[in-house]
Amino acid sequence: MTTYKEAGVDIDAANNALEKVKKHAKTTFNKHTLSDIGSFGGCFNFPSKDFSNPVLVSSVDGVGTKLLIANLANRHDTIGQCLVNHCVNDILVIGAKPLFFLDYFAAGKLDNDILDNVIKGFSIACKQNKCVLIGGETAEMPGFYDNKKYDVSGTVIGVVERNNMLSNRKTKKGDVLIGLPSNGLHTNGYSLARKVLLDKYKVGVNIDSLGCSVDEELLKIHKSYLNVLSPILDKPWLKALSHITGGGLIENTHRVLEKNQDVKINWSSWEWPNIFKLIQEEGNIKFDDMVRPFNLGIGMVLIINKTNLEELESYLDESNQVYHQIGEVI
User: Fold this and answer.
1) Is 249 left (phi over 0), alpha (psi -120 to 50) or beta?
2) Domains of the chain by range and CATH?
3) 324 burial via Cβ count (<10 Å: 0-12, 13-18, 19+)
4) d(CA 155, CA 62)
5) Over the stretch 167-213, which tens digit does the pLDDT of each residue have?
6) Mean pLDDT, residues 141-170
7) Whole-model pTM over 0.85
8) How many other C-beta atoms lie within 10 A of the C-beta of residue 66?
9) Residue 1 has pLDDT above 90, yes or no
10) Which neighbouring-strand residues pair with 113?
11) Do residues 292 and 251 lie in contact, with contact meaning Cβ atoms separated by under 8 Å?
12) HEC string for 81-110
């Protein structure tokens, strides 16, 4: 007699994992959370009285082949944070703040320690971004994934007042671009980075120019910009935000411009972090081929009315937020 466990799916192990998930998720719950982890659906009591004309904003994403670095290093505590922060930044571009987050975790063979670390990362980032880890799915898929491989995706739901949607604002020529620094690669460009670096640099071995090992550098947490930008989302001089992900600075910023507009970037206005210099040098990569896959040290771009530059600079200085004036709309 063949059992489901012998086929590669251990329901008892999954149930044990669920208890760990509940422990982390409950630390993110707030007064609007109506359901527990394990329900067929996550229930959230939307605070409609706090809004006059609310619009729900959603985004779904993954972390790409950054997962392969996590597997090589056997370190899984940053992946969950990266995923939540990436999703939160995407809806922030619309002007939305997160309400709740759902995850999907799939593996060839469920490793409860790996799952625990990933979910712990989700919960840390959810608390930092003031949203609820309201539910998710854990799938064991033998034969589809190798036993040590796993994949994750996440979905965030947020809200913004309709009259404060950044997507309704119009950029114009002369608007100024302000760049906020990234924390390394964030979650993009890993296929190229792996190809260039992993044949030469071993996991766990310090690289002088980085001050850490290649895996420590590549597993740095994707930064969330929610907390620093929330206080100025309703400022009329903030024309647009651009989250610099796959496609790089130029292509992502083009997504929030009006038709027939372009950006003029002063590429010397900030210094690339050493990881990008190392990738370019070791891979003998042309400048144009660095611009598209990597953020090159800029994780979020603010487009503002140039007459309000001093006000923004004053706010960022008071917030101890590093920034660079990197260009303009043309």
Assistant:
1) alpha
2) 11-167 (3.30.1330.10), 169-329 (3.90.650.10)
3) middle
4) 9
5) 999 999 999 999 999 999 999 999 999 999 998 999 999 999 999 99
6) 94
7) yes
8) 26
9) no
10) none
11) yes
12) HHHHHHHHHHHHCCCCEEEEEEEEEEECCC
